[in-house]
Amino acid sequence: MELDFDNTHSELTKKLQAHLESVIPYDESSGEISKAMRDALIYSGKRFRPILFLFLVKDSGRDYLNINYLQLASAIETIHAASLILDDLPCMDNAKVRRNRPTTHRQYGESVAILSAVGLLSLAFKLITETAFPDDIKSNAVSILAKATGLGGLVQGQYYDLNQNKLALYEYEKISEINQLKTGTLFEVVFSLSSLTDYNKNNNYDQLMLTSKELGQSFQIIDDLRDGFKDSGKDINQDSNKYTLTSLLGSEGVMNKLHSHIDMVDNQLSQLYGEKCLSRQFIIKWFNSSLKSD
Length: 294
Known about the structure:
The protein is mainly alpha-helical and 294 residues long. Helix content is 71%, strand content 1%.
């Protein structure tokens, strides 16, 4: 079973990478912006969100390598790449390293970084409109992404994250809300798009949304715990001055909370698609390896 998963994961990753490279070819006429967009999108990353989306598609009995699903997966990754460029800017987190490379603004300058992020956001919506899904599906998919990238998601989450002290967002509920907005939002997109495009409706939407929220909290906790790891691919201790669930609950408390979230994700996916489903295996493998440091 593990060999089957590893082979499927490897095949999927290669297909996704090839598709990402195809949706944003280098255009010399656009100067550095095109190159910055390509670098931010196709340079090595975990691809966690688009791969999870494609595994959910497969778990619900669909052809996960169909170009329409690859388009949606690419749109998800494009939104993520754009958000990272903006998060890293000097006026935001002022990060120097992303994915073990200089951040976009350090390579190309702030103006090119901002424009490339806008270009990637625009590309994500374009990818959706180019699919062969019915118009109502495409319209709903666009709405899902628009909500996620606006005040109902990433924008508000980043604002809260930058202004924790000003807004006194120190309590557990407030920090969890920030985590949901800035991290859980894109996982909602992943599960929502899988549900939206499942014509057989072989799923329970409420269960999927619950799972996405639990996974978003898990992902942010692990990201906070890995902040001091050398192999995180980012600046070490980038978030040391922020209030996180780790700083609030302590190591033991936050690990208990993390296991609770992951157990909920595990149980929900097992109920929906069975214990051998690819999405569950993918998340468990990620969980077991993510806290290891070199």
